[in-house]
Fold Uracil phosphoribosyltransferase.
Amino acid sequence: MRVLVANHPLIAHKLTYLRDKETDSPTFRRLADELVTLLAYEATREVRVEPKDIVTPVAPTTGIKLSNPKPLVVPVLRAGLGMLDGMVRLLPSAEVGFLGMQRDEETLQAITYANRLPDVLTGRQCYVLDPMLATGGTLAMAIRYLAERGADDITAVTLLSAPEGIDAVAEELADLTIPITLVTGAVDERLNEHGYIVPGLGDAGDRLYGVV
Ligand code: URA
C-alpha cells in the first residue's frame, strides 16, 4: 500500500482546529469538508482521463476529460458521510456508493450493517472515505469488499491515521495485487487501549453528528 501524508500548512492549520475539543459541531463539519477537498486534490492525482478535442474561440486543441466508467466514491457510514461533499466538489461526475460499517466497541472488530453499491465494479477506480484510520479493521474490510467486486484501483482518504492502523491495513491486504493508496492528513502517535487515535480528535462521528 502506498501511503501519502499530505504535507501542507493549510491542512495542518485546519487539522489543529479540528482536533481542538473546544471546536463545535458546525465548525467541525466545515473544517472536515474543507480538509477533504484539499486531500481530494492529492487523492485524485492519478484519476483516469482520456483526450478530449475542443475548439477554443481561437483554435482547436486537445484537452482531457475523466474517463468512463466514472470513479466511485464510497463513504463508510456514518463518519465518512462528513467527507462526501468535500470529495464530490472536486469530482462532481463521480458516482457514490455507501457502505455501513462500524466497529464493535468490545472486540474492536468491524461489522457491515448496510451496503448500497453496484454489484459489479470491474475496472472501477474507487475512493473510500473514512475520517479515522485507527485499528484499520473497517478500512481493510471496505477495501477488500470493493476489490472482490472488481475495483482495480482503490484510494482511501482519511483525515487522521494511526501507525498501527496503517500497518494493519497493509498487512491485511498484502495479498491484493491492485494498486492501493492511502492519502491522509496526518499520521498521529499511536492508538490508546480503547482504540482511539492519540492525540487524534476524539470520535469523529460524534463530533460531526452528535452522540446518537
Ligand atoms: N474512530 C474515531 O472516531 N476516533 C478515533 O480516535 C478512532 C476511531
Observations:
- The mean pLDDT is 94.
